[in-house]
Structures are given as structure tokens and as C-alpha cells.
Amino acid sequence: MSLDTRAGVPQGVPVTAGPVLRPATPADLAHLAVLLHDAWHDAHRDHLPPALLAARGPAYVEGWVRELLPGTVVAERAGALLGLVAVRDDEVHQLMVAAPARGTGVADTLLAAAEDRIAAAGHATAWLTVLAPNDRARRFYARRGWLDRGPEQVAAVVPGSAPALLAVHRYEKSLGRG
Ligand SMILES: CC(C)(COP(=O)(O)OP(=O)(O)OC[C@H]1O[C@@H](n2cnc3c(N)ncnc32)[C@H](O)[C@@H]1OP(=O)(O)O)[C@@H](O)C(=O)NCCC(=O)NCCS
Predict the structure, then answer these.
(1) Residue with CA at minimum distance from ligand 1 atom 45
(2) Which pLDDT tens digit goes with each residue over 64-74?
(3) Gap from CA of 108 to ligand 1 centroid (Å)
(4) Atom in ligand 1 nearest the alpha carbon of residue 83
(5) What are the extents of the domains in the chain?
(6) Which residue has a Cα nearest atom 8 of ligand 1?
(7) What residues pair up with 86 in beta bridges, in sequence order?
(8) Are 122 and 178 in contact (CB under 8 A)?
(9) Closest to 117 (Cα-Cα) out of 146, 78, 85, 164
């Protein structure tokens, strides 16, 4: 079985077999960094300033994944990582699915796991921010029952220059358990 090393998705493995969800481990770091880097750039490359895109290179993303690791759950199939969701307190901080696994339900499974984790920590509501022009993600969150709470601006750090102000939307979901 040849391995598409960049995304770690083994070719020939049917995308229909349900993914296994598990906590991320340090052994996943390199693969998660590639997955997060590629999915983040897929979603943002047409909407963010070049300096910010350039600042979110593999080295930066590896540090990002290391920081998020304790709150990260991965979706795995046949030993390959198909997606990740990273939770921080009541926030879904990152949800990233590898391109071949989009539209397969992996995202739904990961987001449901994040909602459960946030509820289990005693929070009544979960929140996230999404770049305003990221239609696919916004449609996905709406379909999963997340409510658009409107536009906000967030500042993204760009080394060597002023922070980039990004137009995002805040989404919230009542977990109805807290
Ligand atoms: C966002 C993401 C997690 C959604 O998961 P997914 O498996 O792609 O979800 P779906 O296939 O259900 O697609 C969501 C919606 O986008 C629509 N869609 C599919 N392809 C699309 C495309 N190329 N452009 C825009 N919308 C698209 C789908 O029809 C669906 O809409 P609907 O439910 O109204 O029919 C996944 O696409 C992803 O990881 N993208 C890259 C990183 C990213 O954007 N992460 C989220 C950051 S906040």
C-alpha cells in the first residue's frame, strides 16, 4: 500500500470505514503538523494577507500543534490521520480535516467529540470563530446546529509587522447539558 506521505492518507483504503477517534499523542506531531498546515492553508490562502500566510509555515505550525496537543483529538483510519479537533476550555480552537476525508462525515464525528469534551468539562455553551469568507466551514457549522453570533475582528500575529486584523464570525452551540 503506497502512502501519500504529505497527508498520511493511505491510498486504496476505502474512505467509508468509520474513523477511530483518540487523543493525540506526541508521536502524531509530525503528521498533525502537515495535516493542520495543509488544511489551514486550503481554507485561508485566498483570504489572508501574504505575510500572514508566509508566517504560518511548517515550523510555526509544528509549534502550534505542540501547544494544542493536550486538547487534541484525532480521527484515524488504517493508521492514517484524517483529521483533528483541538479544544481549549469552551472553545473549539481548530477543526481540520485532510482533503480526501472532507465530505465523508469525519468532520461531523470530530466536532461531536469536541462538543462532548466541552460539555464534560461543565460548559453549557461551546464557541468558535471562523474566517468570514470560509463558506464551506460556516455551512458545516450551521448544519451541525451552531448559531452564527455575528461578525468580529481578531488580530493575528505577523512577525516583523503589525498584527493582521481578520474578519471572522463567532459561532456558538448550546450543549444543553451544563
Ligand atoms: C470545514 C470542514 C471541517 C467541513 O467538513 P466537511 O467534511 O468538508 O463538511 P461537508 O462536506 O459537510 O461540507 C460542508 C458544506 O460545504 C458544502 N461544500 C462542499 N464542498 C464545498 C466547496 N468546495 N465550497 C463550498 N462549500 C462546499 C457542502 O455541500 C456542505 O454544505 P451543505 O451541508 O449545506 O450541503 C472541512 O471542509 C475542512 O477541514 N476544511 C479545511 C479547514 C477548515 O476550513 N477548517 C475550519 C476552520 S474554522
Answers:
(1) 96
(2) 999 999 999 99
(3) 10
(4) 39
(5) 3-174
(6) 102
(7) 72, 94
(8) yes
(9) 85
Instruction: Give CATH for domain 3-174.
Output: 3.40.630.30
pLDDT for 93: 97
Separation of 176 CA from ligand 1 center, angstroms?
A: 25
Residue 138 CA to ligand 1 center (angstroms) comes to 8
The pLDDT value given to residue 177? 56
Do 95 and 111 contact (CB within 8 A), yes or no? yes
Q: Which of these, 82, 101, 92, 104, lies nearest to 36 by C-alpha position?
A: 82
If you average pLDDT over residues 80-99, what whole number do you get?
98
111 confidence band (pLDDT: 50, 70, 90): very high
Residues in contact with ligand 1 (CB, 6 Å cut-off): 39, 42-43, 95-97, 102-103, 107, 130, 134-137, 139-140, 143
Residue with cell 480535516: 97
151, pLDDT greater than 80: yes
